[in-house]
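Fold this sequence, please.
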Amino acid sequence: MSKRITLGCAAFVLCGHAAWAHAQTTTAATPTPARAADTAAQGNRLVMAENESFLLPLDDRKNVHPTYPQNLLGQHLPPRTVCLRVGIDEKGAVIAVAKAPASEFCVPDAEPEFLAASEMAARTWKFDPALRCVFRNVQDKERAHASCDGGKSIPQAVTLVYRIRFDQVDGQPTVHVIGG
């Protein structure tokens, strides 16, 4: 499993390597998969109190990277990057996969085969869910340091953005997944 990142800010947004996460803001105790998918698609932001922190979901080490499309190998294309929004429900299951909006990191001109390979792989990914950690007070939150120890952990649905870079090095395909 990957290292968890904890955030203890009032409004949660993670922007690094073109990745950000938006946790579900609904007040329902047990959100439905449809509501979690809506939240993942809409990108609602989680607002936290001073005594709360947030842990990003952990990706399963068995999650496979997309494969370089065979029909494009002979074209010796320059590196291509595809960006995906991946909606993850409060159980850690992928519930939505879509092309992310264009940005400085996500150019819209990659061949459709790269997007299709990326989406197909992302739909198979699994995660330990994101957690909202609620503590009795700020001091308990600070003592927990990157965990929910001593507080209540509440699984959260999130949307993460991944950059997937397809490249060829000496004629050999390579694929790098960045973000999350």
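The first strand starts at residue 6 and ends at 7. Residues 1-42 have pLDDT under 50 and may be disordered.
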